[in-house]
Amino acid sequence: MSEHTDSAIVVGASIGGLLAARVLSVTHARVTVVERDVLADGAVHRRGVPQSRHAHGLLARGREALEELFPGLTAELTALGVPAADLQSGFRWVNAGRLLCQAPSGLVGLGVSRALLESRVRARVRALLGVGIADGCAATGLAVSADGRRVTGLRVVRAGGAAEVLGADLVVDATGRGSRAPSWLESLGYPAPEVDEVPIGLAYASRAYRRDASGPDGAAIAGTPADPRGGVMIAQEDDRWIVSVGGILGDAAPLDHAGFTAFTATLPSPLIHEVVRDAEPLGDAVRFRFPASSRRRYERLGRFPEGFLVMGDAVASFDPVYGQGMSVAAVEALALRRCLDRGTEDLAHRFFRAAATVIDSPWRIAVGGDLRFPGVPGPRTRSVRAVNAYLERLHVAAEHDPAVGRAFLRVVSLLDPPQRLFAPGTALRVMRGTRSAALTGGSPVRHAAPALPGTGGAR
Ligand SMILES: Cc1cc2nc3c(=O)[nH]c(=O)nc-3n(C[C@H](O)[C@H](O)[C@H](O)COP(=O)(O)OP(=O)(O)OC[C@H]3O[C@@H](n4cnc5c(N)ncnc54)[C@H](O)[C@@H]3O)c2cc1C
Asked: Distance between CA 88 and CA 175 in Å, rounded?
């Protein structure tokens, strides 16, 4: 085992791992990011992050958190042609069949491709003092102290097949939804976390298109129980659209040109179809299957080894309907920084509790929403049903009331907790909005796409 003093290892050089490394670079003299893929320079898709070929955008809180960790990143990205859009006036959101009222909100998101974002963040991390990235190196398990109470390092296998143990005071698992941490823990005599799982059977198909710069910034169209197909279309760098469409319970969009285009016409709004129909495709469509949202409840474990943490999708990976995963990882990284400010005593319990608070909100909104679909198995508690019923009314009000729309987008963007939607001021507006919609007989309609530029969306 190599010598170590005050060193940390992060497993996974994707968004979660890179942000953890940034935070640890302040508290640990040496940080090694261990990545199974061999990393190429630049913005390229790679095997370990198959979702990068599908629509990704960065919500307001995620952008702010990244900016806090890497000052100037937003300007760096926009200089590379990444569109920065007001999430309410620029981007179009269709929820419950209703187009959210457009108005300036001050919530700025980025239409940055996953590959470009990761490559710029990786370059920033590589430049940090004391941080190194060991790529082509797969983690296989944890090394522990003789009494088994403390993690002392990481077992790895290098690309050539050589196995070794890298010593560290702290190991952070950021290996995504396929994380082996539960079985690593069990093999050391620790309990694995309970798992909350909602099988949704999402099947995405995605394709890039050339974008006329005068076109919209994007659109997110959420499926409804009556019309479960959805899609997202995001304006990205290099004057291109990334369009992802899909259904639940295995309802997959065809990958061929005619089939894909026809599928976009079946979404609850024509916003995406009207772009795809006329735009020039850039390459073939690709598929991604997302069987279930899952959340590992590390915060509930009584026994956990010292010197080990898990974060990002490795803890919770949920329906990307609102594109929140990278923002969650970024806010978790800030939570880790706050926990480390108070030292390493009881770090795991403190961090997992903080991470659970970050995850609660997007989980309730995205995964609670999945339970609206009758075929999706899962417990429809009274609170899930009440929240969904309220949100249904909120989307009616948000069609005409920009303040209600903004309140919703602040929650989706992780800037406010969901409880804020029930605050008296918003609840009153929701009540008034639904009453006036009832008076005018306003039921969801397949509205025509507005003539002016807009943006893209999700299932
Ligand atoms: C279709 C789709 C669309 C999405 N859209 C959005 C969006 O618009 N906005 C948004 O914010 N989020 C979105 N997300 C979520 C987002 O992709 C994830 O939340 C985010 O990538 C989480 O990053 P992570 O670092 O935790 O894990 P991952 O990105 O999964 O990375 C895991 C890393 O660990 C490495 N690794 C795995 N095993 C090992 C091992 N044994 N040893 C060493 N390395 C290993 C992998 O190679 C990889 O680099 C979307 C997800 C999907 C599926």
From this structure: 33
